[in-house]
Amino acid sequence: MKKIIITRGIKTLIDREGNFLNRTDFTIFPVVSNEEALEIHRSEKADIIIADLDSQALSGELFCSAIRNNEELCRVSLIIMHSGAASEIQRASRCRANAFMEKLTDPAILIEKACKLMSIPVREAYRSPIGIMVNCDNTRHPALGYAENISVTGMLFDSEKSFSIGETISCWFVLPDSTHVSTGAEIVRINNKVTEHDTNQYGIRFLDLNPAFRAAISDYVRKKQRKP
Question: In which domain, by residue range, is 177 found?
Answer without folding.
Answer: 128-226
